[in-house]
Amino acid sequence: MLMRATARNLSLLRLCSVYYQSTAAVAVEPVRNPDIAYTQIFINNGWHNSASGKTFPTVNPTSGEVIAHVQEGDKADVDKAVQAAKKAFELGSEWRTMDASDRGILLNRLADLIERDRCLIASLETLDNGKPFVDAYNIDLPLVIKCLRYYAGYADKNHGKTIPLDGSYFAYTRHEPVGVCGQIIPWNFPALMQAWKLGPALAMGNTVVMKPAEQTPLSALHVASLVAEAGFPPGVVNVVPGMGPTAGAAIAAHRDVDKIAFTGSTEVGQQVMKTAAKSNLKKVTLELGGKSPNIVFKDANLDEAIETSHFGLFFNQGQCCCAGSRIFVEGAIYEDFVARSVTLAKQRVLGDPFDANTTQGPQVDQEQLGKILALIDSGKSEGARLLCGGARHGSRGYFVEPTVFSDVKDGMRIAREEIFGPVMQILRFENIGELIERANQTKYGLAASLFTQDLEKALHFSSGIKAGTVWVNCYDVL
C-alpha cells in the first residue's frame, strides 16, 4: 500500500501532546511492582506449561534484573496451539458460524477490558520494555484500544461483489477468512503490535497462533487472559512465548498455518519468507526494518521541522522501524538545524521510566545496547562529527546517551544500517537534483518525510521517493 500523508501543523508529536493534555487532570499512578500473573503458554483459553519444561527469563532493561521466568514454548507447543486454532476454524464450529457483527462485539469487549486494565498493561510495558510509562499509558494503550475498535466496526462491512457475465451466468466474489494465522510480533511496541495483528485477523474470522518477542512477553500474555474473559471461543487466539529460532521457526514452517505475519528485522524476515515458501507456500506479510530519509528544505518552517525531526528519531528510544534516521538538511539552514537539534537532544531526561519526568528509558536489552554502541563507534571512526552523547549512560540498565552526528556521508555505516536507537545522523545537501537519488540509496523502503512550504516541491519529491509512506510537514501520522 502506498500512502502519502500531508499536514501543515500536525504530527504524532502534536497528537501525543493531545493525549498528555487530555489525561493531565487525571492523576494516574503506574503500578511499579505489578503482580506477574501470567507466565504460561495460552492455548484453548487455558494456561499450560511448556512440553519441554523449559523457561526463560524476562529482564527489566532499567536494572538488568530478572522480572520473572516465562514458559518457553517450542515446536511441540506450537503444534498444540496450531491444532487448537485449526479445530476452532473447522466448518460448523462456533467461531466459523458466528455472525460477523458478533465478532465485532467480541473485539469491542476486548477493547473495553484493555481500557479497564490500561494502567496495568502500560506498567507491564514499562517494566518489560523500558519505555516511559507516560508514553505507554498516553500513547500506546489508547492506540491499542482505537485499533481494536476500528476493526470491530469493520467486521461486518467487508464483502464481495457481483460480476456481470455474458449469457445466463451469475458470478460473485466472497471474501473468506484465510484460516490459521501465525503472528510473530516485535518488542518495541508489544501491546500495539499485538493489536495490529489480532484486530484484522479476528475481525475477518481467522484464528491465531501468536509468538510475542522473548524480550517482552508479559503484556501479550495479559491480553491473552482478556481474550478468554471477553468470550472468544477456545482456540481462536493462542499465545506461545518462546525463542525465534524454535517457536518462531516452527510457526513459519508449520503446514497447517495458512498465513504468517511477521514484524521485526529484515534478516529474520527473509528467513520467515524462505521457511514459509519451503513448507506450504503460506501467505506472508512482512513489516521489516527501515532507514527512512527525512528531508528538510530551506523554505520549511524551521521550528516545526527541528521539533518534529527530533521526535521522529528519538521517540521510543529510537526503537521505531520507521524512525527518520537519515536527516537530509539543505546547506543554507544546516548549521542552525544541527545546533538546535543538539540542544534538544541534551534536554532529554534519562532515568526511571516510571518517573513522569523521564523522557527516555533504556534500550530493550544488552544485545541492542551493544549493537548501538558499536555503530556509534563506527560513526566516529569513519569521520562523522559527534556533537553530543555517544556513550552508555550509567552502569545500571541499558541506557544510551542521546547522540547527534553531523557531517555524515552517504557511505558511512551509520547512514546505511538501521541503528534502532537514540542516534541522530544529519546529512547536508546542496544539489536538489541529486536528492531523490541519495534518498533512495538504501535497501529499505518503509517511510520518508519532507519539510517544505512549496507544494510543487512536496508533490515532486514525495512521488520520487521509493517509500511506502511519505509524510509531508509531519511524522508518524498513522
Automatic annotation (TrEMBL):
CDD domains attached to this UniProt entry: ALDH_F1AB_F2_RALDH1
Entry-linked PROSITE patterns: ALDEHYDE_DEHYDR_CYS, ALDEHYDE_DEHYDR_GLU
UniProt keyword Disulfide bond, yes or no: no
Family recorded in the similarity comment: Belongs to the aldehyde dehydrogenase family.
GO molecular function, one term: aldehyde dehydrogenase (NAD+) activity
UniProt xrefs under Pfam families: Aldedh
Enzyme class: oxidoreductase
The protein's Enzyme Commission number: 1.2.1.3
Keyword Methyltransferase in annotation: no
The Aldehyde dehydrogenase domain, residue ranges: 47-475
This protein's UniProt keywords: NAD, Oxidoreductase, Signal
Transmembrane segments: none
Originating organism: Rhipicephalus microplus
Superkingdom in the source lineage: Eukaryota
Active site positions: E287
Signal peptide limits: 1-25
Lineage: Eukaryota, Metazoa, Ecdysozoa, Arthropoda, Chelicerata
Protein known as: aldehyde dehydrogenase (NAD(+))
